[in-house]
Amino acid sequence: MAVTSSFSRRFFVKPFPFFSFNFSFSTASSAPPPIRVALTDSVGRAVFATRPIAAADLIHTASPAVCHPYSARAACYYCLAALPHSQPLRAPFCSQHCHQRSKGYYDVEMKANWVAFDDYCGTRGLKYPFLVKRLACMVISGDARSDTLDILQPTNFTPEMVSEMEEEFVLLRNAFMETLIGDDHIAFLTKQWYINVLARIRINAFRIELAVGLYEDLLSLAVASVEAEAAVGNAVYILPSFYNHDCGEVVTKK
Ligand SMILES: [Zn+2]
After folding, report:
1. pTM of the model
2. Domain residue spans in the chain?
3. Cα of 17 to ligand 1 centre, how many Å?
4. CA 77 – ligand 1 centroid, Å
5. Which residues make Cβ contacts (< 8 Å) with residue 61, sequence separation at least 6?
């Protein structure tokens, strides 16, 4: 039996800390999660139940491989939690913990001038290149491998789509090249790498919305947050990407 839910949207409860480079199988109990990943005849890999799972049961928790907030002024750089209104503009973290956990790749990002890249993507409404930028920073800082997302299914880009990505790739690479970061640290950052990563992010990224409250209230909170367009950013998860899901929004719980 494939794992499905009676809800049209999927819920993943984020553990704290939110971010790690390996998905977590942690559950409320010490028992292993009741799932396995296997091939299907028609839709590639999928997650299967190893025992009956009731509606609204927590199957497992997962941390994203990479994430990025829509706005550095509104959401934490590391965990996408809402920032306090009194937060200084130059401190995009909800806590010292989040600052410390992301310090390596945040410092890499701060070494470069992102005006041209951010303007190009921002004016075109492009969100996924920011996830590639984040992953590139993580690779440079040693917090992630360049092949972190390779296990995920990629989308197929047409040659026209690939050529349209030339500009954003050049702007990303130039931003790093104009810093004191050594060439050997950005050797991985080829156009092929950029396209390969973006092809995986494109069909595996989840829109992240924040919800607060009791787990039992998540469905009503999800409905409320969707109506309020409460999305705070995007994230790519490894195991949840194997779920045969409807690409609906993810609600995370702080
Ligand atoms: Zn945070």
Report:
1. 0.79
2. 10-64+205-253, 83-202
3. 8
4. 7
5. 12, 13, 14, 15, 24, 26, 27
